[in-house]
């Protein structure tokens, strides 16, 4: 029997995660009243039951009964009933953006209070669950398919899960440094393909640009030193409980050098992806073309 409690910040993707788990063969129930959770767990533990995989969505919408959750989980522990907690997290900026895009009210803010106030209050109420979580997924930069991949690793393939998710992000300094970047590296010291007529319209995703950038000895030396530092930091970040690491690599316009080096770092980190999740994002790769088209 595998019993998973899916919880976390409103807007972080709990409903999506439940649908994905359902597709993976889990019996799923959402927002069951907290006092009924022990009964639900007992039913799952009955020998011979057909329902051997279940996921239960629990969040702040439970209202007053949510306050009982800490006590209820203690009762499950005392009764020897096994369960796992999947906690979905996301940054305040991303959550606020999602609420604005969907034009929905935060459960704790209603129509009269600002969303950020509701988010802050929710974080405080959920803090005990976050500390108790077996799996902590930060969906701030995750695509839907990436979330599905992480859930599949944990709940289908039963791989050992590391709570760190790495985003390698290329950007252009002229468009601003990414506000959520934990580490920022400047590759403007490398020769700029922009000044080569036949390369100007291409990007670091094109072989010609990649070859031009990487034929420079300094590019390989930088990549080697950067990789060495990142590989040193990763286990220390994991030990510290960090769940999201955004590595920004910037050049002038975010189209040539930064894209090339970001791709190279991403490919290197992918070799050890069993220890963490990793994704690539090119924030400004199309911006020059859009600016000129105006």
TrEMBL record:
Binding of GTP, residues: 59-62
Keywords: ATP-binding, GTP-binding, Nucleotide-binding
Pfam families associated with the record: PapZ_C, RapZ-like_N
Binding site residues for ATP: 8-15
Entry-linked InterPro entries: P-loop_NTPase, RapZ-like, RapZ-like_N, RapZ_C
Domain of life: Bacteria
UniProt xrefs under SUPFAM superfamilies: P-loop containing nucleoside triphosphate hydrolases (SSF52540)
Sequence ranges assigned to domain RapZ C-terminal in this UniProt record: 165-286
Domain RapZ-like N-terminal residues, every copy: 1-158
PANTHER family per UniProt: RNASE ADAPTER PROTEIN RAPZ
UniProt protein name: RNase adapter RapZ
Species: Dorea hominis
């Amino acid at each position: 029997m595998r019993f998973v409690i899916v919880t976390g910040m409103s807007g972080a993707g709990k409903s999506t995660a439940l649908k994905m788990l359902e597709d993976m063969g889990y019996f799923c129930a959402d927002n069951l009243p907290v006092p009924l959770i022990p009964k639900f767990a007992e039913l799952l533990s009955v020998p011979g039951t057909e329902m051997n995989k279940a996921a239960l969505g629990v969040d702040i919408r439970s209202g007053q009964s949510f306050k009982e959750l800490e006590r209820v989980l203690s009762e499950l522990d005392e009764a020897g009933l096994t369960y796992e907690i999947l906690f979905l997290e996301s940054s305040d900026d991303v959550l606020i953006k999602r609420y604005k895009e969907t034009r929905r009210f935060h459960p704790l803010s209603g129509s009269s209070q600002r969303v950020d106030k509701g988010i802050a209050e929710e974080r405080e109420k959920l803090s005990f669950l976050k500390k108790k979580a077996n799996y902590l997924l930060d969906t701030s930069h995750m695509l839907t398919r990436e979330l599905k991949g992480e859930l599949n690793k944990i709940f289908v393939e039963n791989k050992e899960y590391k709570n760190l998710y790495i985003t390698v992000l290329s950007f252009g300094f002229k468009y601003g440094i990414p506000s959520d970047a934990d580490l920022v590296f400047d590759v403007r010291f490398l020769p700029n393909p922009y000044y080569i007529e036949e390369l100007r319209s291409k990007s670091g995703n094109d072989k010609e640009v990649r070859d031009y950038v990487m034929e420079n000895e300094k590019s390989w030396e930088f990549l080697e030193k950067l990789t060495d530092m990142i590989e040193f930091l990763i286990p220390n970040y994991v030990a510290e409980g960090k769940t999201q690491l955004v590595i920004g690599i910037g050049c002038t316009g975010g189209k040539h050098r930064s894209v090339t080096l970001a791709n190279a770092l991403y490919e290197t980190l992918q070799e050890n992806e069993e220890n963490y999740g990793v994704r690539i994002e090119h924030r400004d790769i199309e911006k020059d073309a859009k600016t000129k088209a105006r």
